Structure formats: structure tokens, C-alpha cells
């Protein structure tokens, strides 16, 4: 049994998420056959060693703010390529959450390293988040041809298999984001002064809750597709995508700078 699939399923249960049994079986298979590096002892040890350097940790908070902001924009464009209104709304909510996460990472930087930021740099960091909210966000209209990906992306995603593949990638990357939040939690608490400890802990709770909900909604979409007689294809695809996510993760570790980022960019 792999610790990543068990941890993810455990958090889904902790927040009362309704997840199909088939999804759980396929996630267990994928993690067993392609074990994620982020579940291995060496990764946790490596992270705990590098994170002791405050400069490294501050940079990793900035890298996270940038990744969450970019992820939010990409996920919004993805939502504009989805015809099913229920799924499109779930994906839009995801985008709004990631926008908030970007701002939360900047807030954490301000709380944990209050004196080291200059005013202009502070403003640049604030701009990493697209600032999407439920009451203020880009259009929900289908993606038009003048956008970077435009019609080509939309036409591709209207193919249901391509949509489910994207959702599987999101699902596995959100599990990774959840694991990284769990690794980061004691670090945030260790860097916090006693005065900020409660605030930082509440932010960590929210991150962990949100990332679990992102695993939940993507698992829900996958579960629906499994019900339509696509068991074997979904199982194969989850195993294949776990492999590509793992390969991406190893590249990140080699780049050292991005270790510990809750990156949402998707592997090709
Ligand atoms: Fe996030
Ligand atoms: Fe997320």
C-alpha cells in the first residue's frame, strides 16, 4: 500500500468527501505501480534540510505565490473550454481558490519575513495573484480564438477523453499540492513568532482543506466518467499520468529552487 494514496484518501474522509470506490482503487493502483517521489522519505528529509535556510524558505514562498497565480489563470481558461455547466463551475471555483492561495503565500511572506521586503517588490508580489473572486472574475464565455490557446484548446477539450485526461492530471497534481501543504505546515509554525502562530496555523488549515476539496471535485468528475463504462481506460490513464507527474517532480528537485512549490502546471 502506498502512503500517498492512503494519505489522500484519509484526508478526503476527514472532510467527509464522497468519493467512488472505483476511483480509490485506481488511485491506489496508480501509486502502487508508479510510486510518487513526494511520498518517499528522502524527499521529506531533503525538504526539511533545505527549508532551514530562511532565504531559501522565503524564496519558496514567492515561487509558490507565482505558481498558484499562474495555475489560477490556466485553470480559468480550462473552465472556458468545458461544455458541461456543472464541471465548468467546479473548475472556476478551483481557479478562484488558487488565486486566493497566491495572495495567501504573499501574506505569509509578509508575516514571517516582515522587514526584508521593499515597497515596490511588495507590490510586484501582490500582482502575482490574478485576484479572481466569486464576485469579480473574467468572463465565463467559451474561450475565443484570440486567446493564447483559443479555439484549438477548446476544440481539443470538447473531446471527452481529453477533458478527463486533464482532470486526472489536475487530480494527481492536487494530491501533490496537499502533500506539500502537509510538509510545509510544521515549517510555517516553526518560523512564526508566538504572536503569529495562530494566524499562520489557520492559513495552513485553509490550504489543506482547499487542496483536499480540489482532489475531491476532480475525483468526482473522474468517478462519473468511470460509471460510463470506461473503467479500464481511466485506470490505465491514472497510472500513466502518475508516471508523468513523478517525472515532472524529479525535474523540480533537480532544479532545487522549485522544491516545495505547490506547482499546478501540467505535464504534457
Ligand atoms: Fe493551491
Ligand atoms: Fe489546489
Descriptive overview:
By secondary structure, the chain is mainly alpha-helical. It has one domain (3-254). 72% of the residues lie in helices and 0% in strands. It contains 10 helices and no strands. The chain has helices at residues 3-14, 21-33, 41-50, 54-79, 85-112, 119-126, 150-157, 160-191, 197-227, 231-254. The radius of gyration is 18 Å and the shape is globular. The two termini are 28 Å apart. Mean pLDDT is 88; it is low at 262-268. It binds fe (ii) ion (2 copies). One fe (ii) ion binds at residues 68, 98, 101, 177, 211, 262.
Task: Give a brief description.
By secondary structure, this protein is mainly α. The protein has one domain (3-254). Helices cover 72% and strands 0% of the residues.
Domain unit count: 1
Number of contiguous helices: 10
Helix content: over 70%
Structural class: mainly alpha
Number of separate strands: 0
Overall form? globular
Q: Which ranges are low-confidence, i.e. pLDDT below 50, for 5 or more consecutive residues?
A: 262-268
Average the pLDDT over all residues and give the rounded result: 88
Query: What's the alpha carbon Rg, rounded to whole Å?
Result: 18 Å
Quaternary organization: single chain
Bound molecules: fe (ii) ion
Instruction: Describe the sheet with the most strands.
Output: none
Q: What is the percentage of strand-forming residues?
A: under 5%
Q: What sequence of helices (H) and strands (E) makes up the elements? A: HHHHHHHHHH
| Terminal CA distance | 28 Å
Amino acid at each position: 500500500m502506498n502512503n500517498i494514496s492512503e494519505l489522500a484518501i484519509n484526508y478526503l474522509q476527514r472532510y467527509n468527501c464522497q468519493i467512488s470506490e472505483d476511483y480509490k482503487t485506481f488511485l491506489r493502483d496508480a501509486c502502487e505501480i508508479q510510486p510518487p517521489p513526494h511520498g518517499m522519505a528522502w524527499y521529506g528529509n531533503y525538504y526539511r534540510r533545505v527549508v532551514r535556510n530562511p532565504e531559501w524558505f522565503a524564496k519558496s514562498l514567492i515561487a509558490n505565490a507565482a505558481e498558484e497565480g499562474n495555475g489560477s489563470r490556466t485553470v480559468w481558461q480550462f473552465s472556458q473550454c468545458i461544455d458541461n455547466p456543472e464541471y465548468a463551475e467546479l473548475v472556476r471555483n478551483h481557479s478562484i481558490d488558487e488565486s486566493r492561495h497566491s495572495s495567501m503565500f504573499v501574506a505569509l511572506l509578509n508575516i514571517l519575513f516582515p522587514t526584508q521586503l521593499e515597497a515596490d517588490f511588495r507590490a510586484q508580489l501582490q500582482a502575482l495573484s490574478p485576484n479572481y473572486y466569486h464576485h469579480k472574475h473574467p468572463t465565463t464565455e467559451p474561450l475565443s480564438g484570440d486567446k493564447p490557446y483559443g479555439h484549438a484548446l477548446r476544440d481539443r477539450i470538447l473531446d471527452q477523453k481529453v477533458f478527463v485526461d486533464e482532470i486526472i492530471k489536475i487530480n494527481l497534481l492536487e494530491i501533490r499540492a496537499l502533500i506539500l501543504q502537509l510538509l510545509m505546515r510544521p515549517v510555517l509554525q516553526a518560523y512564526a513568532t508566538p504572536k503569529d502562530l495562530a494566524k499562520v496555523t489557520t492559513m495552513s488549515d485553509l490550504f489543506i482543506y482547499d487542496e483536499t476539496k480540489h482532489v475531491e471535485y476532480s475525483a468526482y468528475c473522474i468517478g462519473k466518467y468511470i460509471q460510463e463504462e470506461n473503467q479500464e481506460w481511466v485506470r490505465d490513464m491514472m497510472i500513466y499520468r502518475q508516471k508523468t507527474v513523478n517525472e515532472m517532480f524529479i525535474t523540480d528537485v533537480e532544479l532545487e529552487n522549485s522544491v516545495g512549490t505547490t506547482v499546478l502546471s501540467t505535464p504534457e
